[in-house]
Q: What sequence folds into this?
């Protein structure tokens, strides 16, 4: 009985592996397409969103904002131009000059008008949630 089942399963496997080459090609292309869509959704789209947010925050930065560089140095923005940014770091207010591309995060200072607007929006949302 067992030998009969093995013989049937072996013939079934042989029939399954003898597919049309065009069908195999479409299956392969389909799997690659699904993989590329997955990579776009999980990797590329979020990175573009982060880059857009960083570019926007760099465009709106002003003197006094806190800057974090890609090297992990934290300081207060002293001056900036098209290519370079100078920050004051440490207790001794040591000025350090960086390229704009070295900025990882811009944290607006609390007294900035935009920061007040955002905090007002958040407080309105909190009030609506409480009601």
A:
């Amino acid at each position: 009985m067992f030998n009969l089942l093995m013989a049937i399963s072996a013939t079934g496997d042989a029939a399954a592996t003898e597919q049309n080459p065009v069908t195999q090609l479409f299956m392969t292309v389909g799997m690659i397409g699904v993989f590329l869509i997955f990579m776009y959704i999980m990797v590329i789209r979020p990175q573009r969103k982060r880059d857009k947010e960083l570019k926007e925050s760099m465009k709106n930065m002003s003197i006094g904002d806190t800057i974090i560089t890609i090297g992990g140095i934290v300081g207060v923005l002293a001056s900036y131009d098209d290519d370079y940014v100078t920050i004051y770091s440490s207790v001794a207010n040591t000025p350090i000059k960086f390229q704009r591309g070295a900025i990882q995060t811009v944290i607006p200072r609390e007294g900035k008008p935009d920061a007040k607007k955002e905090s007002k929006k958040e407080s309105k949302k909190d009030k609506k949630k409480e009601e």
Q: What stands out?
A: Residues 62-109 form a domain with the SH3 type barrels. fold (CATH 2.30.30.30). The two ends are 73 Å apart (CA to CA). The mean pLDDT is 81.
